[in-house]
Structures are given as C-alpha cells and as structure tokens.
Design goal:
By secondary structure, this protein is of the alpha+beta class. The chain contains nine helices and five strands, in the order ααααααββαβαββα. Helix 5 packs antiparallel against helix 6 and helix 5 packs across helix 9.
Length: 208
C-alpha cells in the first residue's frame, strides 16, 4: 500500500487524528471529513511526500464510493453525473460540489470543498481531484480527455508529477481548482448502463 511504501503505519496515523482504524474495514462508518484532511496532512508531513494524497487517488476509481459509485456509473450523461454527484455526494463526503463554468470553447469543472472546521485542505482537495479524474477515466474510457488542470494552492515541489498523472498541463496558484474539458464531454454516456440498477439505487439513496 501507499502507507507501506512511505514507511507509514495507517492505524497509527488514524489514531493520532482521532479516527478509529476500523474505518479501513467498514465502509458504513461515518468519518468527520476534516479529520480525513488531518490524516492526509500528517501522512504527507511524516513521509515528506507532498504528493501523498494524489498518489492515493491512483488506487481509487468510482467503485471506492460503493453503491454511490454504481449510481454514478448509471448516469445518462456526464451532465447527469454532475447532477447526481451534487445531489448525493454529501452522504459520502460532506462539503463537495462540482460546479460548471462555461467558457468560450471549454468547460471548467470546478472542484469545491467547504468544511465547517478550519483545516489545511490541500491534500484533501488533491485527493478529490484525483478521484474525480480517475472515476471519469474509468466511466468514459478513452473518450475522457481534459485540456488542462488548475489548482488554487501554490505549486509544490516535484510538480511535474501532476502533468504525468493528469496527462495534461497543470497550473498552480490559479483562481479555480478545476478540470478543463471540451463541451462535448458533457454529453458522453458512461460505458455500462443498466436501467433497473439505476432505479434501484435512486430509491435507495432517496430513503437516506
């Protein structure tokens, strides 16, 4: 795992941030998202690896969200996927919103993260951006292409890693944290569609 590669003990990191390590085995347990940010910050600091969180996202795709991820895979289009994400994401990770900004010849898909507690969000934001990118890659296959990526926070060391990860130019200290895509991507349909599964999952989430 990433923790072992960086000579970290995941259980100790979680305990130091007030999280029961049982969450590693139980997906139904609620975890304060601010404490997740603290764990990622601690891991990055202890390992000296500023790319810890985004490297962690390399081990994730939409299935990491469980039934929510399955619901995303049944979206009618990328546009519908955004709608579903903004409607139900709070059940998985409170404070997340994906906001579209239509520009001249592209769409900026802004990743917003707002928590009630004051905590350094850089690692958590990079994890989220990485997961969004990887999930879309898994859902839309080779049709998923981005023009560029921007982050609002300052440029870290080893910044060339980001261009390799996203396969696109990456810029830091920008007004938005966003993925820039062609407008046509909004109409793309995920590669696997099952109408009955989508109806079942919507009923399940509507009850929560």
């Amino acid at each position: 795992t990433l923790c072992r590669k960086n000579k970290l003990n995941a259980h100790i990191l979680l305990k130091r941030c007030g999280i029961d390590p049982l969450v590693l085995r139980r997906s139904d347990l609620f975890v304060d998202y601010a404490r997740v940010a603290e764990v990622l910050n601690l891991a990055a600091h202890e390992s000296g690896n500023q790319q810890f969180a985004i490297k962690l996202s390399q081990q994730r795709d939409y299935l990491v969200f469980g039934s929510f991820g399955l619901l995303l895979s049944q979206a009618e289009s990328f546009q519908d996927l955004l709608r579903i994400t903004n409607k139900y994401a709070h059940l998985h990770a409170p404070g997340i919103k994906l906001q579209e900004h239509h520009l001249d010849n592209q769409v900026a898909l802004e990743y917003q993260l707002r928590l009630s507690k004051t905590v350094d969000l850089r690692q958590l934001i990079e994890l989220g951006m990485g997961v969004v990118y990887r999930a879309a890659q898994a859902l839309f296959k080779e049709a998923w292409q981005i023009n560029k990526v921007t982050f609002a926070h300052p440029e870290p060391s080893n910044s060339q890693f980001y261009a390799e990860f996203f396969q696109a130019p990456v810029f830091f200290a920008q007004p938005l944290t966003a993925l820039y895509i062609k407008p046509a991507i909004l109409d793309l349909q995920p590669s696997e569609q099952r109408t009955q599964l989508k109806s079942h999952l919507i009923e399940q989430f509507a009850a929560q």
